[in-house]
Amino acid sequence: MSLLFSRRSVWVSALLLTLAPVVGLPAAAVIDNSSPQKLIDTSSRALLADLDANRASYRKDITGLYKVIDKVFLPHVDVDFAAQQVLGKYWRTATPEQRKRFVNTFYHSLLTTYGDALLDFTGDRMKVLPFQGDAAAPRASVRTEIKRSNGATVAVNYSLRKTEAGVWKVWDVVIEGISYVKSFREDFGQEIDQKGLDALLKRLETSGVAKPAEK
Description:
By secondary structure, the chain is an alpha+beta fold.
């Protein structure tokens, strides 16, 4: 496994781990998106509880986990804003149809490609650190630590923004100082420069995999 692929797996699995609340939870397990810290804390607890209860069945049929994530993941992510940041300058020149296709294919590919990375996560491998920042600001960063299987600790920061509806959503994950939005923007930008946006969209739609452009 390449270093880049491994890093991408950590990015996406960390994002899904923290932001994918699940259906069928007790009424008390409500996802609270009224503050950055509460969103990260309550959603991670909810998903971990579901993983503990259904891990065996998910190992037999990963599509069950895909369905859970797909159904409840996107509402807690500022999909459009994240997509704009990933495409960067190309978002401004893209047509409405191209923008819609990119949002759909990009996030679908992330879910289906890296969803299985969640299977090995357990509650003792993630720690949400005390919030540092201005609670009244429209942007926030929540710090967490994720322990790898080899015992190493990885710093994971979640970038959030407050929407017009007054709720918090995540739009980026920063692993040890490296942003997944910036990384994908660089990779996709190279591919768009070489082949065009439609070619990138076609590849993503055909393969269902968000991967770096071929060098």
